């Protein structure tokens, strides 16, 4: 299923597409975005001045200093002990246990004279050099493999500046008013609308949480992507315990499949998919049975997963300039090579027919349309032939009371609300000059798909956004949850009446595909030039 | 059992062809593996050019071509055995003796013998292909350089190869029984056959290589001790002289690395080809099969989904039909439309009612099975609360708060792990610990010392108690759903506890049985108790942990699909069902699901039901049957949630009992 669709990244963009210049200027420091009402963003002096609803999600604050980072490595405790020379065999056995073959060879190569025969030392050194050469070659092909685990998670996480952020993950429950927050100290707290008990989840293996997600069609299961494995917690919603034991967690691990940077539950709740930039295969987990099926493709791993809400397709981004769109019926995939950089993030429209994504090194958002439901044509993704640019987010300057304010940059993560009306974009800044900001677009899918400017979401003074997510079933519009760099988690409601557009597909029965099939026909502007290659 | 003896249309038209296709592919793969084998068997790092050229010339030689032909025959036989022996429902032995019995059944015996012979044939081919000193069984004797042509000598290397082949073949057959290799499991996701094969191939090769290493070790040990016997026999039978310079059943003989390498390569080759055949067979058998929902021609009606679903035999057909149902309910709107359609004259929803009825009957069957099992266990373990509390008390005194510790004694109280095992794990109950595991002190075998304390010093094994109890015990017997339900010895480990538990209130049922039967029961119990005191018998008849729970859920994959299919269809009916055919059965679907939910919940409250088996990543063992009960639990909850989240407040309008309404309310609030 190879399709040679090169995204042309040098194309001249149409001037009519949405760009940041059309946005209302960002708020000055000291003002906070409270909500959207009557089509405009309303600001206030502080978060407390927002109007109350029937249930306000708690506005939480996790100060960075209050959380101790447990960035201890297994080997770092070694420094605390006195040095003691074991025999070489003891040391070798220990090295084999701790660090595998490389450790063993290292130990032998560094052994002193006379302990073992000379040829063994030389042989070990030679093998080690060969291994290093091979791994450097591998690292040359896939540079991300040379990163440490921690750096790799930081590189591919959807959280901006993951390694220094107090909140490392956030997940709304898909059906109820419940959410989980992963913190810097490797604990996870679960907040519930109807009870004041906030269970804290801790586990020996729960280190370096990169992502977390609740299982759909289930009350209790929460999957957590960790440094060494995937944990699935079963948090009993009726339990009064604040510290569920680690027996409540299932550990799903597979050799060579760590660190896990992205996880995705199928919308029908049947399988969980995990991806690691180190492992070339994605794992399809049957969580109840703790068994997995690897889906292997050539390449340097998988960094990001996003499942279409109707369950028919899945985006899998790789660390190399290539991403795949899987069709989830027979699990075949389409390859989409990009020219410039790797696919950083992506999100699906609620009906699963449109994919928005961004590419590293570029300041635009692309859209891909998948006109036909994959159910009928067996084993085909059925995508359009090329991606179209739908928004230009290049740097723009606004003049404000505090001088000129520059906004724009690469996209770090995208979030589309479940009704398909608002699109939040987290833009990487260049901290001293350009702060990271959240730009919110209104989206419209008929008569043509387009993005319209809505505004910038501003937090408290000095706080930069780190993570964005929409509430999955907010009744009167959309609710955007933002985690800020100062440890604040705030919720920005967007009140609007749904324009009766696309409704989320119910339980795997996708609604009829939209009439706008191709990108070119029936009057739609073609938003990109012909393929240059 | 996918037996080919059944003359069912599905077996004839589908299963046969699938098996044939899988065998054909294994045969096509054979030359590739053979070539690899030949190249690897000649490996010499220091003369690479010579190595390659020799291998190439050998590959075109008559020996290799002839061997490939012979090996094709082997593949055909192995493939035929796969077809005959594979099954979609695993057979799970509940006791050690049942496992032993599985080996001794005639058809398993045939399996072992045939695989033994096939292994020998493969080893012969391998020996011929490698050539050199392995080529022939008999060779003219050479004594100090000069050939004496009159007397033939045994070539022990060749003989060693043949025996190794037989040993590996036999081990393959034996291990197949232990790890249920003939169980065909269905994947959670659908993939094309080629991709599935490609994905599984590295694992097959790796496992075969490792397994071959283990077999080699075992074989060398066996040959070292017992090798002289078959050698002597073959020498006598074929009138050969045994005069090899180094006998292979000595340490120095076995330390021949080239021999061991060749043997290992041969073993790997054998296992790879056989495992590949098995893998291809499983992939082909579990491939989706699409049945038409309805047919306009009456002569094709027997192939339609509603008809196929309701049939009982062959079981693989039922599984594939249910898989198709679950698939169509998720992915195929047009076929769903057919399910919801009405019959043309008359306007009856025949398709839907047939499908729904079958699924519901399967669900209620499972519910009944679970309830009955629960009853049995609950009545068996009447002593449970007592022992559990006392054990907990004693163990928590030292390890307070550790749930795992507290669990172990409770587990043993019901499922009768030998007390010696359990004493090792629970630290506190050390009375008689030193003696118990080795000296067959009668009491300590069944009861933990804690129990003895709590029960006082009375001897619980005196036949009088048991004779009073016997009607209870025997009445309970057939309900156990273990493979050995009829065996009177099966219940023996349970007797003591159960009887002691009942002592305070002797049941009145004993009066109904006559004197003669009473006497028979007495004898029976005495024999039983006598046997129960013997360690070996105890060991053999003890229940394997979890096995009964696994056996209870052995065919649950079908129920999982039924639940998925039903729930997806019901959810799709929200928008797609124009005639409201689903609404007529909606409340019964909900209530049967909730009933099953209740039964499953109860089952998981039993000890041992919720413990997971150890998971091994690097083995070909298919452990999915061990975790089917967890999969069922998850699928059931998801199914109910799927319905409640779609229908939401409309569910209040559905008639159901107050209890179910309460339960549904829990689900609607996401509190389950």
From TrEMBL, chain A:
Aladin seven-bladed propeller domain: which residues?
148-495
Q: Which InterPro entries match?
A: Aladin, Beta-prop_Aladin, WD40/YVTN_repeat-like_dom_sf, WD40_repeat_dom_sf, WD40_rpt
Supply the Gene3D superfamilies for this chain: YVTN repeat-like/Quinoprotein amine dehydrogenase
Which Pfam family name is an example for this entry?
A: Beta-prop_Aladin
Q: Which GO terms describe its cellular component?
A: nuclear pore
Gene Ontology BP term (one): nucleocytoplasmic transport
Kindly provide the name given to this protein in its UniProt entry: Aladin seven-bladed propeller domain-containing protein
Species whose genome carries this gene: Megalops atlanticus (Tarpon)
Automatic annotation (TrEMBL), chain B:
Q: What GO terms describe the biological role, i.e. biological process, of this protein?
A: mRNA transport; nuclear pore organization; protein transport
Q: Where in the cell is it found?
A: Nucleus membrane; Nucleus, Nuclear pore complex
**Residue stretches in coiled coil:** none
GO MF terms, alphabetically ordered: protein-macromolecule adaptor activity
Q: Which InterPro entries match?
A: Nucleoporin_prot_Ndc1/Nup (IPR019049)
Topology in the lipid bilayer: Multi-pass membrane protein
Q: Which top-rank group of organisms is this from?
A: Eukaryota
> What do the Gene Ontology cellular component annotations say?
nuclear membrane; nuclear pore transmembrane ring
**Where this protein primarily resides, as one coarse class?**
nucleus
Per its record, how is this protein called by name?
A: Nucleoporin NDC1
Organism per entry: Megalops atlanticus
């Amino acid at each position: 299923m190879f399709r040679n669709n090169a995204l042309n990244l040098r194309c001249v963009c149409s001037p009519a597409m949405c760009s940041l210049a059309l946005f209302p200027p960002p708020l000055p420091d000291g003002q906070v975005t409270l909500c959207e009402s009557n089509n405009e963003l309303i600001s206030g002096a502080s978060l407390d001045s927002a109007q109350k609803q029937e249930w306000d999600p708690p506005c939480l604050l996790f100060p960075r200093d209050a959380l101790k980072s447990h960035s201890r490595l297994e080997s770092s405790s070694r420094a605390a002990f006195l040095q003691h020379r074991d025999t070489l065999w003891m040391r070798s056995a220990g090295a084999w246990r701790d660090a595998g073959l490389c450790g063993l060879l290292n130990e032998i190569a560094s052994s002193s004279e006379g302990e073992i025969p000379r040829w063994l030392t030389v042989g070990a050194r030679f093998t080690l050099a060969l291994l290093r050469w091979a791994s450097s070659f591998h690292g040359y092909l896939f540079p991300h493999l040379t990163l440490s685990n921690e750096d790799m998670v930081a590189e591919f996480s959807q959280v901006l500046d993951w390694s220094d952020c107090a909140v490392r993950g956030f997940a709304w429950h898909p059906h109820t008013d419940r959410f989980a927050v992963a913190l810097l100290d490797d604990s996870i707290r679960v907040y519930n609308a109807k009870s004041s008990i906030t269970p804290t989840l801790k586990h020996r293996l729960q280190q370096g949480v990169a992502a977390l997600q609740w299982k759909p069609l289930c009350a209790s299961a929460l999957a957590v992507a960790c440094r060494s494995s995937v944990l699935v917690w079963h948090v009993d919603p009726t339990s009064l315990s604040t510290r569920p034991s680690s027996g409540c967690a299932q550990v799903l691990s597979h050799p060579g499949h760590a660190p896990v940077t992205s996880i995705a539950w199928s919308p029908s709740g049947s399988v969980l998919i995990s991806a690691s930039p180190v492992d070339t295969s994605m794992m399809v987990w049957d969580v109840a049975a703790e068994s997995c099926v690897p889906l292997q493709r050539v390449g340097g791993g998988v960094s990001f997963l996003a499942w279409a809400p109707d369950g028919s397709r899945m985006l899998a981004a790789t660390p190399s300039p290539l991403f795949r769109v899987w069709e989830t019926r027979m699990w075949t995939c389409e390859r989409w090579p990009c020219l410039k950089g790797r696919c950083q993030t992506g999100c699906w429209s609620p009906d699963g027919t449109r994919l928005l994504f961004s590419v590293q090194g570029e300041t635009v958002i692309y859209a891909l349309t998948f006109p036909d439901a994959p159910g009928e044509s067996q084993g085909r993704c059925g995508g359009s032939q090329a991606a179209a640019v739908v928004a230009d987010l290049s740097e723009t300057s606004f003049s404000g009371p505090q001088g000129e304010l520059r906004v724009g940059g690469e996209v770090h993560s995208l979030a589309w609300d479940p009704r398909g009306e608002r699109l939040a974009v987290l833009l990487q800044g260049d901290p001293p000059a350009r702060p990271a900001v959240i730009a919110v677009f209104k989206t419209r899918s008929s008569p043509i798909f387009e993005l319209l400017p809505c505004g910038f979401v501003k937090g408290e003074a000095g706080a930069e956004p780190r993570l964005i997510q929409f509430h999955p079933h907010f009744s009167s519009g959309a609710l955007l949850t933002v985690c800020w760099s100062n440890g604040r988690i705030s919720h920005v409601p967007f009140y609007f009446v749904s324009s009766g557009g696309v409704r989320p597909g119910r339980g795997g029965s996708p609604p009829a595909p939209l009439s706008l099939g191709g990108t070119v026909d029936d009057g739609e502007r073609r938003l990109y030039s012909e393929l240059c290659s | 059992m996918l037996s080919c003896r059944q003359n069912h249309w599905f077996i004839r038209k589908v299963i046969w062809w699938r098996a044939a296709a899988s065998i054909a592919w294994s045969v096509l793969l054979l030359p590739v593996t053979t070539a690899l084998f030949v190249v690897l068997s000649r490996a010499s790092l220091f003369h690479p050019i010579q190595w390659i050229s020799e291998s190439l010339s050998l590959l075109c030689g008559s020996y290799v071509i002839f061997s490939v032909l012979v090996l094709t025959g082997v593949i055909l036989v192995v493939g035929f055995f796969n077809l005959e022996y594979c099954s979609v429902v695993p057979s799970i032995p509940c006791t050690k003796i049942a496992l032993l019995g599985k080996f001794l059944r005639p058809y398993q015996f045939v399996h072992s013998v045939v695989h033994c012979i096939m292994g020998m044939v493969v080893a012969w081919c391998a020996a011929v292909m490698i050539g050199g000193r392995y080529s022939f069984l008999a060779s003219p004797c050479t004594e100090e350089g000069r050939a004496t042509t009159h007397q033939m000598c045994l070539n022990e290397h060749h003989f060693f190869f043949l025996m190794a082949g037989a040993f590996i073949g036999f081990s393959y057959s034996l291990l197949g029984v232990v790890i249920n290799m003939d169980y065909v499991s269905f994947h959670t996701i659908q993939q094309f056959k080629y991709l599935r094969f490609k994905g599984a191939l590295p694992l097959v090769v790796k496992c075969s290589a490792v397994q071959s290493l283990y077999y080699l070790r075992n074989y060398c040990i066996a040959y070292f001790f017992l090798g002289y016997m078959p050698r002597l026999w073959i020498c006598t039978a074929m009138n050969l002289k045994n005069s090899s310079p180094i006998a292979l059943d000595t340490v120095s003989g076995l330390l021949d690395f080239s021999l061991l390498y060749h043997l290992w390569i041969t073993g790997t080759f054998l296992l790879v080809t056989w495992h590949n055949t098995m893998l291809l067979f499983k992939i082909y058998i579990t491939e989706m099969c699409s049945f038409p929902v309805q047919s306009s021609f009456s002569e094709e009606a027997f192939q339609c989904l509603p008809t196929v679903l309701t049939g009982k035999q062959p079981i693989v057909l039922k599984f594939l039909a249910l898989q198709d149902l679950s698939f169509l309910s998720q992915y195929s709107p047009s076929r769903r439309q057919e399910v919801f359609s009405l019959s043309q004259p008359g306007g009856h929803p025949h398709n839907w009612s047939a499908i729904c009825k079958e699924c519901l009957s399967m669900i209620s069957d499972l519910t009944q099975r679970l309830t009955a099992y629960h009853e049995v266990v609950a009545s068996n373990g009447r002593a449970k609360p007592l022992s559990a509390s006392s054990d907990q008390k004693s163990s928590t005194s030292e390890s307070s708060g550790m749930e795992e510790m507290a669990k172990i004694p409770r587990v043993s109280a019901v499922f009768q792990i030998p007390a010696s095992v359990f004493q090792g794990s629970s630290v506190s109950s050390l009375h008689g610990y030193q003696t118990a595991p080795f000296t067959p002190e009668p009491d300590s075998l069944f009861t933990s010392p804690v129990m003895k304390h709590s029960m006082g010093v009375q001897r619980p094994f005196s036949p009088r108690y048991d004779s009073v109890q016997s009607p209870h015990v025997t009445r309970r017997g057939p309900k156990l759903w273990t493979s050995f339900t009829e065996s009177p010895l099966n219940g023996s480990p349970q007797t003591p506890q159960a009887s002691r538990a009942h002592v305070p209130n002797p049941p009145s049922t004993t009066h109904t049985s006559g004197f003669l039967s009473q006497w028979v029961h007495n004898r029976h119990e005495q024999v039983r108790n006598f046997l129960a005191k013997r360690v070996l018998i105890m060991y053999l008849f003890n229940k394997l942990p979890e096995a009964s729970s696994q056996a209870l859920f052995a065919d649950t994959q079908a129920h999982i699909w039924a639940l998925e299919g039903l729930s997806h269809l019901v959810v799709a009916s929200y928008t797609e069902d124009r005639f409201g055919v689903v609404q007529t059965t909606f409340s019964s679907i909900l209530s049967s699901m909730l009933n099953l939910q209740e039964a499953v919940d109860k089952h998981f409250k039993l000890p041992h039901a919720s413990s997971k088996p150890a998971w091994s990543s690097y083995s070909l063992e298919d452990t999915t049957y061990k975790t089917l009960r967890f999969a069922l639990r998850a699928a059931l909850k998801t199914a109910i949630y799927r319905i409640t989240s779609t229908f939401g407040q409309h569910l209040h309008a559905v008639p159901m009992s107050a209890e179910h309404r309460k339960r549904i309310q829990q689900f609607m609030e996401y509190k389950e």
